[in-house]
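Colleagues,

For the teaching module next term, I've prepared a clean inverse folding example: a structure given as tokens, and then the sequence designed for it. I'd like students to try predicting residues themselves before seeing the answer, so please don't circulate the second half yet.
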């Protein structure tokens, strides 16, 4: 298992929690989950610890912004 898989596995519970309160028109749960997995990998790549914010906070913001972007581009719904 490589680092990317370990990272996604570590944050999978957070993805599942977000999926409980998220619905986006035209996307099923697995589509949204996959977008959030991609967001995790992008967050890991773009994280800068010198900015004095925790990775969890940075990741949470990245995931929320991913959901908002999906909603905006699909004119969907968010229940949260």
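(Answer key — instructors only)
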């Amino acid at each position: 298992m490589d680092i990317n898989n370990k990272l996604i596995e570590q944050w999978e519970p957070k993805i599942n929690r977000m999926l409980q309160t998220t619905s986006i028109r035209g996307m099923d749960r697995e589509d949204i989950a996959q977008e959030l997995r991609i967001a995790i990998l992008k967050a890991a790549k773009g994280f800068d610890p010198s900015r004095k914010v925790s990775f969890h906070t940075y990741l949470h913001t990245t995931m929320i912004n991913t959901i908002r972007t999906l909603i905006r581009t699909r004119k969907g719904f968010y229940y949260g």
